[in-house]
Fold each of these.
Amino acid sequence: MLLSELVDLIKKGNSNFINSNIFEDLNIEDAASLDEADNNQISFLEENNILKEKLNQTKASAIITSDNNEIINTLEKLMISNIIVKNPRIAFAEVLNCLYKKINFKPGIHPSAVIDKTAIIGSDCYVGPNVYIGENTLIGSNNYILQGSSILGNVQIGDNNIIHPNCVIYENTILKNFCVINSNTVIGSEGFGFIPKDGKWVKMPQKGGVKIMSFVEIGTNCCVDRPAVGLTFIDEGTKLDNLVQIGHGVRIGKNCAFAAQVGIAGGAKIGDGVILAGQVGVNNRVKVGNNVVASSKCGIHTDIEEGRVISGFPAMNNKSWLRSSSIFKKLPELAKKLRQLDKK
């Protein structure tokens, strides 16, 4: 695609186009990171990126960047075409979507798929090899259900969803529109419900369901459990990385982002816009307020007020954790001094 055509694409996008300087209207064949880009490739550079110090070494034919005079002047001296936007990362994402087209499966049902006679499948759906769709399941239009996935009974799926290979969606699950469920993920598995009695465990039947709203994306090898009664709920726009565990009866708000190996215990309530970094753990029935940010390996054992940035185990204010961490490193030295004082 010609660079000028990509500029037109970005103008229509969501990155807030400012200006462009095209020295040569080359055909852009590929995209790459700034330090690995070659001729006929496009890259992006944000003003706080350390790679800006190596601009004179890049071979990229064009760079998407922010409105930073230092970067723009350098690019002009190097005769590198540039596209100036408010948010280079969003513009680069739009370019990637344009350069790398997804595999387009033609609508139809593979002969090896097993579909219960009571299931209803909407128009323009693709149902791949060895897919199973159970009784009383309703599937809307323009869905892609890829090979090996199993959708059990009484499931409702809306429109324009992609269910990648080998997923399992259990009974009583509702999946709205424009969602992506990546490979080997299980939605609606039994919650971890057991009652201790006489040194043994009595199973609590898990008869509830899961409801996932629109524009949710769930990574590979995730588990979203159903509760004994009621629903586990994920609101619209929320994104889950790989290997995330959502316990039974959890309620998650809108536009949250959870990194890999996050674990949320049963009954927890997560507000809107919450960001949980890798390996964050949330205790059962804890309430996490809107727009909370928790750093990696944070242990959330009690309710957290909205807007807080937290770290540590157990979780505390991020600044307090940083101060505590710096002291922790000095503990051997401090202990030695205390012993010396005791001897005196």
Amino acid sequence: MQWSPVFECSIGPDGEKTYRVGHELVDEFLEFASVRCRPSTVRAYAHDLKVFFTFVDKQPAEVTPKDVLAFIVGQQRSGRSVGNVVPISDATSGLSAATVKRRLAAVSSLFGYLVLRGDAGVTANPVPRGMPTRRSRHRGQRGVPLIKGVRRLPRILTADEVELLLSSFRTDRDRAMAQAMLLGGLRRGEVLGLRLEDLRVGERQLFIAEGKGGHQRQVPISPTFFSVVADYLNAERPADAETDQVFVVLKGPRRGQPLSVDGLDEVFSAARARAGLTHGTCHELRHTCFTRLKEAGMAIEAIQAMAGHRSIASTRIYLHLGGDWLANEYRRAAEAIDAQANVGVAS
């Protein structure tokens, strides 16, 4: 093997995490990505690139489209877990299509960076844009995707499950974080990124300084959230905390420091176990929020703005999560058709 890919994470004095894979060019790409992407994205890049180069066993400049296609086949045929990702049965015996697509995106981003640099011996991105078809060849289009994705409806929590989960949290801090997702639809990273100045109590809104893709937005949220977060700030948050992050560690050597993603995940995992729930992730709480808002009659365009979706296509999925929406729309249209058909018919 020409080099041995690794997955390393080091923590600096300021708590900032740096990820390394063990190759100069790849590590420089991760450093570049760290100033324009969220830490979770850089971590995923490092993990996925480690998996890719372990498979292809080549220097970056030696990778060809054939290697990439072989990697796709290998991932989709893999019958065992790779890293911290487990295989699922979804038209293949290997990893899910979403996981393989994410790994390809990481590889494509790396080689796009290397091509742009111009000094890495890489002149073209080896990740194909798609499988060409007869029509796409003549029109210069992308063709069919390399990986056929399966778009699934996300799971949501019932009202009883929401009540069970909220009652299983042991602190107002944890309940406030859950309510930010359930009542405001915030992402996990957006909850952890809230600063004290982002709590717009008078306006009953939250300011999201760094949403997905770096986009900012203001999110209206129920007074219930502000009531719980006020109890947390008054009784639980250490008075000597030096950070302006809203949610901090309450005990131990990191007391008063910003709560980490791992810390939040640990809190929610323990709460789900106490509640006896087999699901209820942070993203499912976000999905639950927007599904309930749609069921209550909120316009899909308003939900798009609240969710921070750049495309309305990402928001339309909530039309299908409410159990009665499609049936009610069909019933309304069918009644109109029947009424038109019966015009002029003697009773």
